[in-house]
From TrEMBL:
GO cellular component terms attached to this protein's record: cytoplasm
Compartments reported by the entry: Cytoplasm
Name recorded for this polypeptide: Uracil-DNA glycosylase
Gene from which the chain derives: ung
Function text: Excises uracil residues from the DNA which can arise as a result of misincorporation of dUMP residues by DNA polymerase or due to deamination of cytosine.
Taxonomic lineage from the root: Bacteria, Pseudomonadati, Bacteroidota, Flavobacteriia, Flavobacteriales
């Protein structure tokens, strides 16, 4: 089975594509896309990897599920294509950016520029059925994306993992904290942010401070 994924990731993950769980996952996803409206479109499923090769990854921002409304999901966690109204979580990310680094609120919710600078915008589940949040969970995607996190942890050094909310924080157990940086906070969703668990985390400035200490180029958020 041939998976269309960026070359450096393909080399790192090639064994996963031959495992029974991944073959079962592929059959499930193909069936779902054939019989239902699903997001993102097929050619965008692996965009997080396409825009941020393994050897360029410096920062990881972990989401849970793709957006399940029309035109929103395009393979990058929290991001929406240009021209699509900004979901509430993304708006709160931009508000924190403004408070933290005095970056003006963007009218554009497309985060591809972050990905091209080495920010892996990874959802734990890479596909979803329209208007069905969580509909493709526990089908194998989490096994695959956990492996992605483990490979980054074992093969690289000094990556900054931004874990927002309870679901993402659980992934800390997959990361070797002795050689990577883990920053945690509440989720940027309104429910969490309005309770005071998101705003003021200063993760964007902290990330850039760490990158500078490591003699790496900071992210232009």
């Amino acid at each position: 089975m041939e998976v269309q994924i960026e070359e450096t990731w393909k080399n790192i993950l090639k064994d996963e594509f031959e495992k029974p769980y991944f073959k079962s996952l592929t059959a499930f996803v193909k069936s779902q896309y054939k019989n239902h409206t699903c997001y993102p479109k097929g050619s965008d499923i692996f965009n997080a990897f396409e825009f941020c090769p393994f050897d360029k990854t410096k920062v990881v921002i972990l989401g849970q599920d793709p957006y399940h409304g029309p035109g929103q999901a395009h393979g990058l966690s929290f991001s929406v294509p240009k021209g699509i109204p900004m979901p509430p979580s993304l708006l709160n990310i931009y508000k924190e950016l403004k408070d933290d680094l005095n970056i003006a609120l963007s009218p554009n919710g497309n985060l591809e520029s972050w990905a091209h600078q080495g920010v892996l915008l990874l959802n734990a589940t890479l596909t979803v059925r329209a208007n069905g949040p969580g509909s493709h969970q526990k089908k194998g995607w989490e096994i695959f994306t956990d492996e992605v996190i483990k490979k980054l942890s074992s093969e690289k050094q000094g990556i900054i993992f931004l874990l927002w909310g309870g679901f993402a924080k659980k992934k800390a157990q997959l990361i070797d904290a002795s050689k990577h940086h883990i920053l945690t906070s509440g989720h940027p969703s309104p429910l969490s942010a309005n309770r005071g668990y998101w705003f003021g985390n200063k993760h964007f400035s902290q990330t850039n401070k760490i990158l500078k200490k490591q003699n790496e180029v900071p992210i232009l958020w």
